[in-house]
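Convert to structure. Protein one:
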Amino acid sequence: MEPSGSAAIMVWMARSPGDEDADLKSRILAILDENRVMAVATQRPDGWPQATMVGYVHDDLTLYFAVARDSQKLANITHEPRISIALGRESPNQIQGLSMAALASEVMEAAEIERLNRRIWDRYPEEVVFAPRETASAVIRAKPQLISLIDHDKGPGEPELLEVGAGMIVRRRTVD
């Protein structure tokens, strides 16, 4: 049985700094820090995928983005909360990025939106903040379930498929 809640956090904190899982998580967080825009794919009611580019902010591995309240994106998320996210960058002879399978939900708590706005102001002082009450927008929270890490800096090869567990613990996905 997997530890959950504070037990999962204690397990994570008890791991040694050289632990492979900690290294994977730090690589993911570095990619999230280096990027500002991501593609979000949802499923339309007719079954076709719909991908849209959005700006984001993250808190640990959880991503947040805003969408118009009357958008197809919000309607899609309301109908089917499973989304796919892709982001990354390319430089000469090197690609770093990730794709993420996540569960999306609308942030409804004013205190959480205010906390996110402080993160945006700190990280991107030139950006507009999330303001769903003043404008017709909604703030979406994307909680990762699976992450495919692409890091050709470590050499060419297959992406690493990772699971995100309780307490945002990252570990390689094992094949059953």
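Protein two, convert as well:
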Amino acid sequence: MPFWEKGPSEKEYVSHSPDGHDGHDGHDIVNLQDGEIAENADMLQRRLSNRQIQLIAIGGSIGTALFVSIGGGLHYGGPGSLFIAYTIYACMLALVNNCIAEMTTQYPVSGGFIRLAGHFVDDALGTMAGWNFFIYEALLIPFEITALTLVLGFWSDNIPGWAIPVACIVSSCVHVRSRLSSS
């Protein structure tokens, strides 16, 4: 049973100081039945520094699609339409990120938005969100390889179209093999 579905008799935060502030942030869970104290129910550890979080955000916002698809919009709509579109997109993305941050702060679970969709709406939606994310990530790999081929083909005609996918597959196999042999 997830920690948020347990009743107040099964979990509670116990403060050891008279004023209720003993250096804890209030997220400690004391399970009175098992006698186990955990940071959260999934043993989720938060060890990312501010710099790592900023680099993840920058890497997620600057992608290959930005360089590949921006040319058509710039040609047909001009710079003003691109600015308006990216402003609206950024505002919607900020709203979604704020909602995810609020839900994750309230219920810190590993699994992110997939588990949150299952909790706040329905388990079937959580399952479908998980499969949708898997399919999205699986289709992203061929898209990135295709985009890389297009970008490199723009600069040089000497690179054959088959060389980039073959190089990506070979490098992936070498990486997987090296990871398997090191463990």
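Residues 149 and 163 are 9 Å apart (CA to CA). The longest strand covers residues 29-31.
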